[in-house]
Amino acid sequence: MRATTAGVVGAALLASTAFGLAPLAQAAPAPTVVTAATAQAAAASSTFRFVDIPGSGGITLKGNVFTPGGYDGSQRYPVVVLPSSWAINDLEYIAQAKQLADSGYVVVSYTSRGFWLSGGQIETAGPPDVADVSKVIDWTLANTPADPAHIGMAGVSYGAGIGLLGAAHDPRIKAVVALSGWADLIDSIYQGRTPHLQAAALLGGAGYLTGRPSPELQKILGNFLTANLAAEDEMIAWGKLRSPVTYLDQLNANGTAVMLANAWGDSLFPPNQYAKFYEKLTGPKRLEFRPGDHATAEATGLLGLPNDTWASSKRWLDHYLKGVDNGIDHEQPVQLKSRSTGAYESYDSWSAVPSRTTTLKLGAKGLRTGELGGDAGSGWRTTIGTNVDSGADGGIIFLSSLLDQFAQAPPVASIPLLPRAFATVWQSAAYGTAQHVRGTSTLHTTLTPSAADGTVIAYLYDVDSLGIGKLVTHAPYTWVGRTPGKAFTTDIDLLSTAYDVPAGHRLALVVDTVDPLYIEQNPLFSTVTVSSPASDPSWLSVPLHDQ
């Protein structure tokens, strides 16, 4: 396996976001209306204190509590519990916690176990973390004026994952807001069986600097570091244990009101896995996607600044914990913010986002570029070398998606100048009208590797008249243990997105083998052949929304 130590460590630590146990299910009672107590609390400033909370297994969790102002010892208030993000402590949510408390909530934030001054070791959202959620709720009911019938959770990243898992395992939780989290840990950290190098290095370093990895986590890291592919099944089982989707039936049985929000360019937990999870939820639910990278869409709200994500989160909690008739339950539940226009779009479901899907056949690659769409033909094959970065790539973690978020400037590549010896390219004709890409594009093709292990990365570009391509979406794909020289067919789902290709521009599909974002598996001097057999032609499906 080709990987740096920091990269592999982080890849496993990305898995630091979800564990679970078997839960009990019970129906959630309807939320109460706003009481005089909560109205009175909204008129007075909340109070704040640091606390020690007994966690599972006898450890101590460091936390803080905001209590609504005007409390006279007789009122009960709805509760919001906020687990901290990876490598951050309980002060993370101070601004949002105060705003919630000032509007009539008891708010408890705590530092997740294994980090900073909280006890225990990093269990990567494992069973002890899930048990901690219930312990924190127990403590809150015993030590604050909390209403046991109206308990909610919210969190960012690691806190989002713990919140979803906690809601699946503790039926007392009636509403959850999961921002920039994960539903399927394997589909996030091992997307296309390809570890994310830059994210790995970032999270790995942060975890070791601020926390204490458990023996189980160290074992997983060791398997990554030694390229122990024999332990892959163990790693996948470990990830499933930490994936909310594993406990979907329990979450649905609990009737929990679930709000999910993420960024189109999330480098850690891509939007696809959230969308799939959302479609399987049967209770009250909401899905929001915005431009940006991991946790950047909600970041300004953590500073107390106006923020759409947090505003929507508060409306969700107000309705499902306080019973406020704010209309959020009557809105179209899928809310998307376009990367191109910055405008919001509303849909009844994720499956309703595209109006139609166009299938573009991949044509024979000549000396330079193959045809994308039209009478592309089949029966062709083209071979590229590996281990050379062609110049097509997904950018730099955080920086590239932030530029896209604030300046609509995604990573770019000169499509005519990409070296065809190391990248194969297909390009469409110029479009007469704008093409509104909405949802998940899929590449269906046949690969013939010269080595048992290898990696390819597929990119979709918006190309202008000068041949400059702006990255629309991409995805990695890795194979392990294939027979060299034997063809196999695969489908590669690219990252979901909302992007407008202007009239007069073209779409270009690029396939190469190296991207600085990922840990690739290509041996030196290996090759990979892309082909389109007549019996099973290669194609790219692109979801479009007619506006």
From TrEMBL:
SMART domains: PepX_C (SM00939)
Transmembrane segments: none
Annotated Xaa-Pro dipeptidyl-peptidase C-terminal domain residues: 314-540
Alphabetical keyword list: Hydrolase, Signal
Domain of life: Bacteria
N-terminal signal peptide: 1-27
Keyword Cell inner membrane: no
Pfam families (alphabetical): Peptidase_S15, PepX_C
InterPro entries cross-referenced by the UniProt entry: AB_hydrolase_fold, FrsA_esterase, Galactose-bd-like_sf, Xaa-Pro-like_dom, Xaa-Pro_dipept_C
Claim: Signal is one of the keywords in the record: yes
GO MF annotation: an example: hydrolase activity
PANTHER family (UniProt xref): DIENELACTONE HYDROLASE DOMAIN-CONTAINING PROTEIN-RELATED, POLYKETIDE TRANSFERASE AF380
Entry's family note: Belongs to the AB hydrolase superfamily.
Official protein name in the record: CocE/NonD family hydrolase
Protein's organism: Streptomyces fildesensis
Lineage of the species this protein comes from: Bacteria, Bacillati, Actinomycetota, Actinomycetes, Kitasatosporales
